[in-house]
């Protein structure tokens, strides 16, 4: 990958979008993970006013502190970066007390609710500042296995790194000197009360998923996969098909003209 040229391309893309749409700034949720760290750094490089939000909800302290240290690093590096630390734990607790908790899918629904509360918060600050919400999803998550929350972290205005594989996210992040503690942290969505990683939830590493995606993009026949590759393909497709509804446009019921006349 031509790292420096790719960085410039993404930054110019962000700047062009802002200029075309006459916006004041950018809003990014920073989680302590690699994707939000890279996205917020690219926003900082754009020179556009960037508001970073650290939004803990019963958060693991390590995740929270990684996010906080990254934000402080950004603010020292870029004059255009500001931040707000807003604890959303009480909002989540009140919601949890207000809804039915007996469903077998309760834990997953509540995990997704954390993401949607954060999305709502990002859009609040985007609206009052005439800004846009910048997405932090990468290609494997957004278009491979659909590992994100619909109308949660998937609710964004632009997605600067959504065409980057996870390995490319790491490559660019290293080139931009993003903190080692973030580069070395095990990827996690941070939506659960335990320390489960993305790999724990998906059943495969991002490297494995990326190999499958690259093979499919090269037009290789999955029926010819064998051994471990076949196993990882099965895991990939299980998530891809289950989450396909997230990756396509909202189905629109088009009424035939003869029924409207």
- Determine the strand fraction and express it as a percent band: 5-15%
Structural class from helices and strands?
alpha/beta
Number of helices: 13
**Major sheet summary line:** 4 strands, parallel
Strand tally: 4
Radius of gyration: 19 Å
By CATH, the superfamily comes out as: HUPs
Instruction: Provide the low-confidence segments as ranges.
Output: none
| Total individual domains | 1
What average pLDDT do the residues reach? 95
Order of helices and strands: HEHEHEHHEHHHHHHHH
Report, as a whole number of angstroms, the end-to-end distance: 55 Å
- What is the C-level CATH assignment? Alpha Beta
CATH topology: Rossmann fold
CATH architecture: 3-Layer(aba) Sandwich
The percentage helix is 40-55%
């Amino acid at each position: 990958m031509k790292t420096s040229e790719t960085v410039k391309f993404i930054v110019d893309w962000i700047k062009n979008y802002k200029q075309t749409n006459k916006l004041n700034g950018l809003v990014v949720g920073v989680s302590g993970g690699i994707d939000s760290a890279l996205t917020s750094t690219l926003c900082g490089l754009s020179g556009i006013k960037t508001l970073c939000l650290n939004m803990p909800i019963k958060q693991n302290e390590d995740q929270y502190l990684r996010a906080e240290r990254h934000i402080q690093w950004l603010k020292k590096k870029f004059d255009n970066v500001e931040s707000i630390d807003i604890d959303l734990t009480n909002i989540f607790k009140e919601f949890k007390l207000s809804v039915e908790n007996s469903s077998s899918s309760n834990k997953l629904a509540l995990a997704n609710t954390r993401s949607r509360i954060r999305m709502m918060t990002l859009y609040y600050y985007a609206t009052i500042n005439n800004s846009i919400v910048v997405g932090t999803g990468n290609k494997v998550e957004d278009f491979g296995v659909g590992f994100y929350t619909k109308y949660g972290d998937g609710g964004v205005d632009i997605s600067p790194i959504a065409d980057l594989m996870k390995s490319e996210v790491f490559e660019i992040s290293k080139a931009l000197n993003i903190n080692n503690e973030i580069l070395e942290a095990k990827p996690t969505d941070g939506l659960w009360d335990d320390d489960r990683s993305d790999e724990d939830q998906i059943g495969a590493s991002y490297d494995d998923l990326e190999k499958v995606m690259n093979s499919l993009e090269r037009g290789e026949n999955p029926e010819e996969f064998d051994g471990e590759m076949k196993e990882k393909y099965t895991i990939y497709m299980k998530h891809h098909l289950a989450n396909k509804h997230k990756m396509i446009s909202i189905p629109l019921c088009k009424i035939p003209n003869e029924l409207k006349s």
